[in-house]
Amino acid sequence: MQLLTDELRAKLLQNGANRDEDHFPVVKLFTPDGACTWLLTEIDPECPDIAFGLCDLGMGFPELGNVLISELESVRGKLGLPIERDLFFKAKHPISVYADDAREKGHINA
Questions:
Q1: In the list 25, 33, 102, 105, which could disulfide-bond 39, CB 3.0-4.6 Å?
Q2: Which long-range contacts (CB under 8 A, 24 or more apart) does 73-77 make?
Q3: Among candidates 35, 38, 82, 28, which has minimal Cα distance to 59?
Q4: Which one of the record's GO molecular function terms can you name (predicted)?
Q5: 3-state secondary structure of 94
Q6: For each successive 10 residues of the chain (110 residues), what is the average pLDDT?
Q7: Starting at the edge strand that comes first in sequence, how are the strands of the sheet with 50-56 ordered?
Q8: How far apart are CA 45 and CA 55, in angstroms?
């Protein structure tokens, strides 16, 4: 499965051009054989391999930060499965709401 379609990438780049806004997550990625989840809001237009969003590596400390898209594409979980895109994810809140909730609960709840 392609992690980012052209449409998703265009929206992430558009958000990246307006970094001062509290964007809604554009895409949710996850490890089907693990506890990792990413809610990405934007891509840096000057370096399109760098995405920003809420990252949860399953250790109880989700945080906002940058991640390399190329790294996400190469990651394999415990059973060797690649990261997948949640095809049914539709953001209901800006990223700050997801981040506050994730810090409180210790994991992304989306």
A1: 25
A2: 73/3, 75/31, 77/31, 77/32, 77/33, 77/34, 77/36
A3: 35
A4: endonuclease activity
A5: coil
A6: 94 96 98 95 98 96 97 92 97 98 95
A7: 63-68, 50-56, 37-43, 27-30, 84-85
A8: 20
